[in-house]
Each structure stands twice: as C-alpha cells, then as structure tokens.
Amino acid sequence: MDDAAVLKRRGYIMGINLGEGSYAKVKSAYSERLKFNVAVKIIDRKKAPTDFLEKFLPREIEILAMLNHRSIVKTYEIFETSDGKVYIVMELGVQGDLLEFIKTRGALQEDDARKKFHQLSSAIKYCHDLDVVHRDLKCENLLLDKDFNIKLSDFGFSKRCLRDDSGRLTLSKTFCGSAAYAAPEVLQGIPYQPKVYDIWSLGVILYIMVCGSMPYDDSNIKKMLRIQKEHRVNFPRSKHLTGECKDLIYRMLQPDVNRRLHIDEILSHCWVQPKARGLSSAAINKEGESSRATEPPWTPEPTGADKKSATKLEPREEARPEAQPETKLQEDVVQVAKQSETLGLNTELNRETEEGHPQQPPETHT
C-alpha cells in the first residue's frame, strides 16, 4: 500500500512533497478530523541506518509524545505500518522557516526579534526544565505559523539528559548539529553539557535574527574556533544594534561553559524583558565581560588582511575578547565540519555539516 492510501485510511488526504532525504520524506496532508493541513514525516525503516533506528528514532518519538508547548510544533499522531514505515503527523509551518524568512526579508528589527526570540527561549526553558535537550537548534528548524510565531521543530538529535548519583547532569560525547551553530566544546570533541550547548546555538540564532548574517565564518573551522575561544563577536555597524542586544548575544556566545548564560538568565535579561530597558556599563562589566570598567565592551575592529572574512561584508564592531587557553581541535571533527553546504544568507556564508557522528537523522525539515 502506498503512502497516499495509508494516510487516506487514517483520515488524511496527502498533498505536496515538502522535503526528502535518503530514508525519510515530509509530505503535506489535509486532516479530515482536524479540518486543516498538517505535515507528515514518513520514515522507511528498511532504508534507515541501524544507529538511527536503535538510538535516535526511539528518542525522537518518546520526546515528541511528551512535549506540549505553544512554541513547539505539535505532534498529532504517530503510527507505524506492518511494512516498516513510521508516520509522524505534525503541525505545519505554513509560513516556512526562519532562515528563508530572513533570506527574503533581511535582518529583523529588534522588537520583532525580541518577540520571536522570547518564544524560542520559552520553548527551550520548557524543554530544559524537563531535562530534554534539542542539540540541533538552527534557523532551518524554527518554523513560522500563519501569524509568524516561532514553532521549534526537528527533534531528531534530542535526548533526555541523564543524572548521576549526586543528581548532576551527565556529559554528552556525540557530535550533533551544524558546525555553524555548534559550540566550541562540541567542535573540539570535548564531553559537553548538552543544555549549555543549546545556549550557544541560541546565541548564533539571535545574531542571525538581528544581523542577517552568520556570526562566524565556518569555512575554516580552526580559525573560527580560535576566534570563538578569544570571545570575539563582530557586529555590523550598519545595523545600529542596542547595547542590551549585543550584550545578550555576547554572553550566550561565551566560550567558557561555566560563564555562559543559563536559559533562566536569558529570559530575565533586560533586552528580553520589554519593560526593563537601559543597560548600564556597570551591568555589562559585572560579570567581567569587559576587561576595563571604564571602557565599553565593544570597540571598532582593527583592520588588516588577517581580519578579512567571507562573513564580514560590512564594517563591524567587535566585542572585547577574553583570553582563552589553546585547545587542540580534533582532526576527525575538522573533517566532519569541512563536509559543508553553502546555503547563502544575504550573500553571506551559512554552511552546515552534512555528516556527523553518528549518522544524521533524515535531512528533512517539518
């Protein structure tokens, strides 16, 4: 029985193809019960790799079944047929994803970015409070509903965090996600705190929202890592970002995992809170983000051939760096990250890894 016939028996009229990978595809469909269109991810067990079937798919199904948040794509139904196909019926992002939105319309104004980022951060807090981590946060996985509200999707790399006997979260060792959004500790192959990894990705997403470009050029992973570990964040001067916005991004893109913001600190940050405006230099310096209390944390970037980058097409300001110890980048991670695809974000580079360890779930976005 083909997919259309299977879905018809379950009350869905199959529509167009939304995406397709090597062992999964996503179709639109009309639900006769719900009376609106949905997205259906169809996974073929016969074509899927063993590690995906044994580890990632069961995790995704378990987590999708337990999540219920207004800013997370709803899962309406999950069923499987005797011939080994799994059907996941989900909410449809009718306005596409955030990456396409920004590529079409350019960077968001801070008020619009604040609203969308608050929705995303609320969804991440909900997940983290349940000890669920996403581990693949990126603009392609942020869908937009009819009113352009954020809907977090694609939990193919998500997992439930484990705790040791003392109640502390255990570290993860699996490389997940896209190099452009991955935290330095993940790219280096260091066992990492998965919740803290999600925060770095949030920082990259907010940067893209308000700048319309990537914060780092991932065409050279070693160079990117060096810049990240020096805690350098360059902002386009043409965007005229507020100090509060730059401060939040700077604190999320913190290479020291012990100093990177937690999700509660993000939600309570003055930029995210619409009524708590006006960030003083003292507040910025309180956590030691600036080495001199008498200077602002962002100064004009030095010029020179060493500073040229494909992702820096405009004059930028640079957040004051902090000294970070050199850590050897694992060669196998470099090879993984080099397998990249240019997506193009406002004429700037936006690459993502196509291969990870272990093999990625379906290359489709719902």
What's the arrangement of secondary structure elements?
Layout lengths: L2 H7 L2 E9 L3 E8 L4 E9 L5 H17 L8 E6 L4 E7 L6 H8 L4 H20 L2 E2 L8 E3 L5 E3 L6 E2 L23 H4 L6 H18 L9 H9 L4 E3 L6 H10 L10 H5 L13 H5 L12 E3 L15 E4 L11 H8 L1 E3 L8 E3 L13
Antiparallel strand pairs: 1-2, 2-3, 3-5, 4-5, 6-9, 7-8, 10-12, 11-12, 13-14
Helix pairs in contact: 4-6, 6-8
Please tell me about this protein's structure.
The chain is α+β, with helices and mostly antiparallel strands and 366 residues long. It is built from eleven helices and 14 strands. It has helices spanning 3-9, 50-66, 98-105, 110-129, 184-187, 194-211, 221-229, 243-252, 263-267, 281-285, 331-338; strands spanning 12-20, 24-31, 36-44, 75-80, 85-91, 132-133, 142-144, 150-152, 159-160, 234-236, 298-300, 316-319, 340-342, 351-353. The strands form five sheets. The protein has a five-stranded antiparallel sheet with strand order 1-2-3-5-4, with helices on both faces. The chain has a three-stranded antiparallel sheet with strand order 10-12-11, with no helix packed on it. A two-stranded antiparallel sheet has the order 6-9. A hairpin with a 4-residue loop joins strand 4 (75-80) and strand 5. Helix 4 packs antiparallel against helix 6 and helix 6 packs antiparallel against helix 8.
